[in-house]
Design brief:
Length: 224
């Protein structure tokens, strides 16, 4: 009687001298069990990895809405030698926590040498310090913005004059609504030390040199 285990290429793992073989185990069963084990491992790995990936990548694909908000009449900001503070709403629907202060003045061609366009007839600076985000205060007597946290100082145009901030104060697009006659403030943008515009970045993210590549804007920031 022919030995079925020895005929041709055997289907039994023992006949093929496969590691861990036991009597009666077929190659098909071995492959099936291996596939099941690998699949279970993959599912377990995804259970850990996917939530972490979603948490990390989610903000990249979300976009935050913004509205142009009226901040006053044109005459309120006609003095180009000082700033007027205005409370603005950065995040809607969360009350006081979503509010901040913008410092606004008319553009002064004598000192505002960055290219003029329809969105910078009024200069609106963010009060968020670009070291760690503390609120800065404009001091008229010194024509400086002072940060109380770590001694950051910005000059009249919002450029870093001293201390640890890594880039000038952020700005907001502004426009004059010809229908209402009101000055409106739009999205925030960041600038480098030459006041070139970039999509808004977070505090601590420099924009000079390779900084703009080391800290690219996320999709939610890329809206201006
Ligand atoms: S947060 Fe403004 S200097 Fe540190």
């Amino acid at each position: 009687m022919p030995d079925r285990h020895k005929e041709g290429k055997s289907k039994y793992t023992a006949d093929r001298n496969m590691p861990g073989a036991f009597d009666g185990e077929t190659v098909t069963r071995r492959r099936f069990m291996t596939a099941v084990t690998h699949s279970a491992g993959g599912v377990a790995a995804m259970a850990f990895t996917l939530p972490a990936l979603g948490f990390a990548l989610g903000p990249i694909f979300s976009r935050e809405p913004f509205n142009w908000q009226a901040i006053g009449k044109q005459a309120d900001f006609k003095d180009a030698t000082t700033y007027v503070a205005r409370v603005i709403e950065l995040v809607q629907g969360i009350g006081e926590a979503g509010k901040s202060i913008a410092y606004v003045r008319a553009r002064n061609p004598a000192i505002d040498t960055e290219p003029e366009d329809q969105y910078n007839h009024f200069i609106a600076l963010s009060s968020r310090c670009n070291h760690l985000g503390c609120p800065v205060r404009f001091v008229p007597a010194a024509s400086r913005f002072i940060c109380p946290c770590h001694g950051g100082v910005y000059d009249f145009r919002g450029l870093v004059a001293a201390g640890p901030p890594v880039r000038p104060l952020d700005r907001f697009y502004t426009r004059l609504n010809k229908t209402t006659g009101l000055v409106e403030l739009g999205p925030r943008y960041s600038v480098n030390s030459e006041l070139q515009r970039f999509s808004p970045r977070d505090p601590g993210q420099p924009l000079d040199g390779i900084g703009q590549y080391l800290y690219p804007a996320t999709r939610s920031q890329r809206r201006a």
